Amino acid sequence: xxxxxxxxxxxxxxxxxxxxxxxxxxxxxxxxxxxxxxxxxxxxxxxxxxxxxxxxxxxxxxxxxxxxxxxxxxxxxxxxxxxxxxxxxxxxxxxxxxxxxxxxxx
Length: 106
Description:
By secondary structure, the protein is mostly beta strands. It has strands at 8-9, 18-19, 30-33, 38-47, 53-61, 69-76, 82-90, 96-103. A hairpin with a 4-residue loop joins strand 3 and strand 4. It is elongated, with a radius of gyration of 15 Å. Residues 1-5 have low confidence and may be disordered.
């Protein structure tokens, strides 16, 4: 999957198209302070080719260090539905949860 500045996709109920807002991070950088490290989680929309939009997410460890670390990352695009406007968070033990807006085009 590759990232594009904008990805506009059709809406079956509206004459205008919807912008995935892929040129910006969504909602917020969620911060957690653990005893042995700090962590940030964030996400943004990406294109899944010409047929769908997915959400890419990242966990960044020790963001205040001289060299922050990209600890893990992933892409959520399990099918041909369009997904955008993700929101991600982390609980006190490090579990990550993310929700997205989704639209199936028929």
